[in-house]
Amino acid sequence: MANPEPEAGEGGPLVAQAVERMAAAKIAVGLPPLAVLGVYGLVQSLRHGLQPAEYVVIAVGAVLSMAAMVFYGMQAVSTVLGKTSPWDGLVFAGSFVPLLFAGYVIATRVLDLWRVGGSAGLGPVVVNVVLLVLAVMCLHAQWKLTEVHLLAREMAGVGGVDLDQGVP
User: Fold this and answer.
1) Any idea what the Cα angle at residue 17 is, between residues 16 and 22, rounded to 5°?
2) Most buried residue, 109, 115, 138, 159, by most Cβ within 10 Å?
């Protein structure tokens, strides 16, 4: 059985493990919708002979978004441990990739729904609605991962405060 009382100096790694589990849970929610979007984009681009750039953008954007989510989640753990990297700025900028990708999918699918207008049958409408739902799931997962990242920053700040100083 694990020792419920951490020894002196063990609080940082325990908090880092908790943040790692939370980040992994949020990443696990975001990766399946991105994988489905990536496979959809790849299949459609191969089906149409790589001509429609829209499907290539969906396939590449999904892969880049998955990588950005994973790196951003790993950065949360290193933030708790107080480790900095020269890549932190790039990882932070990359955290916007899933948001921009989901926005792109939502915008193109809504415009495609408006263009279809119900005259092409139910099939394209259902596909567009499913793609919209997957993009919203990606947005939600990235939002939750950002909350984990903010929590990691707070935990890193708490870890740097000397709690042994008595308050009158």
Assistant:
1) 95
2) 138
